[in-house]
Amino acid sequence: RFVVFTTTGSHSAIGRMNALVTHALAEQGHEVVGVAAEWPHAPSGERHDFGAPVIPWTDRSIVETNARRADAVGYHLGDHMPNHRGVIEWYTVCPGLLCLHDRSLDNLLDALVHFDPGVAIPLIANALGPTYITGRDPGHEPSAVDFRRSDLLIQWLAGYATGIITHSAWAAEPVRSVFAGSVTVVPIAYQKTTPAHDRASRSDSSRD
User: Fold this and answer.
1) What's the CA gap between 187 and 203, in Å, rounded?
2) Which residues in the chain come in under a pLDDT of 70?
3) Do the bridges between strand 183-185 and strand 54-56 make them parallel or antiparallel, or are there none, so unpaired?
4) Which strand ranges, in their side-by-side order, compose the sheet holding 97-100?
5) Are 119 and 73 spatial neighbours (Cβ–Cβ below 8 Å)?
6) Spatial separation of the C-alpha atoms in residues 5 and 35, rounded to whole Å
7) Per-residue pLDDT tens for 154-177?
8) 86 near 58, Cβ under 8 Å?
9) Long-range contacts for 136-139 (Cβ within 8 Å, ≥24 apart)?
């Protein structure tokens, strides 16, 4: 039994990858439940087909029930807060396998401070220290401090992980020195598409 926290919108490359994986797991006879991790205020729209039931992260009793029954819980985390709010909410409550899709999480941190300070400020202060609460000004390129803040958050997240997956050795750098468990670099799952489909996907791309 697998419970997978993921962004679900059809615009998301992370969601598209997870849909391929959950379909493959279901075809192999595994029971899979998806948890839609989007921020409740994020625009709704079409979802990827995961070949499995998908529940909202805000339905605490159903999420808790499925997490208790699961053999493994996985969390897919990227740098775009509206797509991953549910991961931030549940990850420390029900630790599991962490899949990092981005090398830096500074945009996610800045968005949390702005939109959800009640969650973000205690999290950053406890995990990183008060020095790192204030992020960069919008539109400015990230500085060494921003990358350090992101690395500290990733390392704090690693403390709750049962295992860590990244898609590049570069993305694994922040956790290798602090995480004693398995850190695995795994290529992103892709599905062969036609050139027309590729062009359509690029024209409809957005942040993950």
Assistant:
1) 23
2) 41-44, 131-146, 190-207
3) unpaired
4) 54-56, 32-36, 2-6, 72-77, 97-100, 163-166, 183-185
5) no
6) 5
7) 888 888 999 999 988 877 888 887
8) yes
9) 136/106, 136/110, 138/110
